[in-house]
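User: Please check token order:
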Amino acid sequence: MSFPAERGLRILHISDTHLFGDGSLHYGMVDTLAALDRVLARASSLGVVDLVAVSGDLSDDGSAESYRLLAGRIAPWASEHGAAVVYAMGNHDLRDGFESVLGARETVVEVAGIRVVTVDTSVPGAGYGAVDAAALDRLRGVVESPSAHGTVVVLHHPPIPAASALLAALELQNPSGVLEACASGDVRLVLAGHYHHAMSTVAEGIPVVVAPGTANSSDPIAAAGTERATVGSGFAVIDLPLEGDPTVMFVAAPSAEDGTEIFDLDAAEVERIAAAAGPKEPR
């Protein structure tokens, strides 16, 4: 089913591809390039797509080759389907590798009369996210001038709470500031990743969509204090009309190994990782 641009925007939302430049397996188990190929093959039946939004943790090793592999898959797919492409930085991404292949870490493009803004929420060396005052001012400055049909913001760390203990320790540290900046202008939709499971809600009156992970699927209802992930990949498809609310579909891109456990971290291990990758001072 196609979604003509004159009626709005059809978005393929992919996140957390975690590619390696040398072909390494994620957690020694998952071929993430093959997982991305499954996602794109599954999405091919969409027909016309206006925008491919890839919301961070594009690479796992930060190498330029990993970004070349990503672009080598995404760009031809997008061209075949008539789509623009935007990439956002995630906490696993490294700035030099990202910029050398994909260009600027924060961008503004217009697609079918809808402005698309990427925001870098990464903090070098950390797993949590933050948007500094200068970047918030930039975002406000962009969205305060109305676009023809509003703005979509693409970032990695969602401005909404996580469901599990480890991801809660690695959340966006200033979600209210980001949402306030979005709400100060014409933002109609926020796209994010990081949580590795589907989520959709409304925050400050703005729909927020978190795409499933490509590299693996986290368990949002794992036992309290633990963190669990299994083999599984998916993506989101969002139809954003010129006026009104978006429609969101979450789609699996299955493999024969789906459901195989990748890790099941106990509370002590979660606390250790949170201490290493989380903020050093409580927000």
